[in-house]
Design a protein that fits this description.
mainly beta; 4-stranded antiparallel beta sheet; globular; binds beta-D-mannopyranose
Length: 292
């Protein structure tokens, strides 16, 4: 039996708002974090000017969200002129770090910001300079004494290490597209991986020649995430229904984060680059996948 994500019947969780000019068109690809008993969703929003900003919505149950009226991150320098996109948040030693795509005439740059309250963000700047890169996500703990992250040099997922989160070395390809399969053209990281007793659980995205974005699952060795222990052939989620198959960009499910609960992983995802939704998988099913 293959692992699949089960959609929440109340989807979508968040839709564009006509009340705020910066989020009238699309709200999608959100980072997720827990803080003080609440669940925070940092979503990419596009409004009348089509510039991407990062909005914040807060929930006590992970399904019903109240949003802040102003974005928490908006373009503020030359690397961000066209927008700030696709945030991924990781908590390390009580500090929240957000990796995001800074988009401008220079191209797409992986950038870092930090916060202690998830509302006020301090920029630390571009961390992979002079290259078009995106889909970067920090690991939730150090590996062998160093910080680790996934990033994407097309068409592959790469792994890199750092002592200070700012300078990254030991870049290596760890996952590639599979010809003839649903992830035949490009693959990229989803949200930060989850630690399980069997390895790092990685819900990633990929697409094929028809540009259908689906999500897949892999398990990576805890001590050496470059070692893939398992990678399922079948996707765990593919676009279905009007929001995901039509949307602003058709046929897209794309994740930048999830939340671990006692018995499940909830994967939050953008549908059609237009709305936010959630789908989950039980820990029992993940165990069966890991041990199967
Ligand atoms: C990628 C990013 C994502 C988006 C996806 C599908 O390149 O721009 O934000 O969800 O394409 O359009």
């Amino acid at each position: 039996m293959s692992l699949t994500l089960t959609r929440y019947p109340g989807n979508p969780l968040l839709v564009p708002s006509p009340l705020n000019a910066w989020e009238t068109d699309n709200v999608f690809n959100a980072a997720m974090a827990r803080h003080n008993g609440l669940i925070y969703m940092h979503y990419r929003a596009q409004g009348l000017d089509r510039i991407s900003r990062i909005g914040c919505a807060i929930s006590s149950d992970g399904y019903h969200f109240n949003r802040l009226l102003e974005p928490v991150l908006a373009p503020a320098n030359e690397f961000e002129a066209f927008g700030v996109e696709d945030p991924r948040i990781t908590e390390l030693d009580g500090v929240f770090y957000m990796l995001y795509t800074a988009y401008s005439p220079h191209g797409t740059r992986v950038s870092l910001a930090r916060s202690t309250n998830l509302i006020a963000w301090e920029r630390l700047g571009v961390v992979l300079p002079d290259e078009d890169n995106k889909d970067a996500a920090l690991f939730p703990e150090k590996i062998g004494g160093r910080y680790a992250m996934f990033h994407r040099r097309p068409p592959d997922i790469w792994l890199a290490y750092s002592d200070d989160l700012l300078h990254w070395t030991d870049h290596q390809i760890i996952m590639q597209p599979r010809p003839g399969q649903w992830d035949s053209v490009r693959v990229g990281a989803g949200g930060p991986v989850f630690k399980t007793e069997w390895g790092w659980l990685n819900i990633y995205h990929g697409y094929n020649e028809d540009r259908v974005y689906c999500l897949g699952v892999a398990l990576h060795d805890l001590d050496d995430p470059a070692r893939i222990l398992k990678r399922q052939d079948e996707p765990v989620l593919c676009p279905l229904g009007p929001f995901e198959q039509w949307g602003d960009v058709p046929n897209v499910v794309f994740t930048c984060g999830g939340i671990e609960s006692e018995d499940a992983y909830r994967i939050y995802y953008g549908g059609g680059d237009h709305v936010m939704a959630v789908a989950s998988v039980s820990k029992a099913d993940v165990r069966a996948f890991a041990q199967g």
